[in-house]
Structures are given as structure tokens and as C-alpha cells.
Specification:
The protein has 82 residues and is mostly helical. The chain has helices spanning 4-14, 24-59, 68-81. The longest helix has 36 residues, at 24-59. The radius of gyration is 23 Å and the shape is elongated.
Length: 82
């Protein structure tokens, strides 16, 4: 449950953008929706990070010592970090 302070801050923030008064109940819905959006974004970020780790494992040198893909990965990593 959202705190009274959070609900009041939500009303203060969103009221200038609304033609109707934002009630406590509407503020609660806003808080719940924003929270759900942030949860979804966090889940997508975790899935993307997991997918990136999987791609990293496929780019490491194979058992035969072929490191062609690793070199390409390293160049991409350096480029993206810098």
C-alpha cells in the first residue's frame, strides 16, 4: 500500500497535467501503474542481461582454440564501453 506522503506527492506532480481533480483513489491507481511499469522494465532488463551473458558464452573460444568470435566480441565490447 502506498503511503499518504507518496499519494500526496503523486497528486501534486500529476495535477497540473489533468483537467479533472486527481483524487486519492486516482493517485493510488497511478502509483500502482507506475510500479507495474517499473517492474516490467526491471524484468526486461534482467532478461536482456541474461541473454547477453548467453551470447558471451557463445563468443568465447571453442574447444579447438578458435578465438575468431572472441576477437570480434572483444572489439565490440571495447567499442561499446568507450
Amino acid at each position: 500500500m502506498a503511503s499518504e506522503r507518496l499519494l500526496q506527492k503523486t497528486i501534486e506532480f500529476w495535477q497540473p497535467y489533468s483537467l479533472e481533480p486527481i483524487t486519492r483513489e486516482k493517485a493510488l491507481i497511478i502509483v500502482e501503474n507506475v510500479s507495474a511499469l517499473l517492474d516490467l522494465l526491471e524484468r526486461w532488463a534482467r532478461e536482456e542481461a541474461s541473454d547477453s551473458r548467453s551470447k558471451l558464452l557463445t563468443l568465447l573460444p571453442d574447444e579447438d582454440g578458435d578465438d575468431t568470435n572472441f576477437g570480434i566480441f572483444h572489439l565490440n565490447l571495447v567499442y561499446n564501453v568507450l
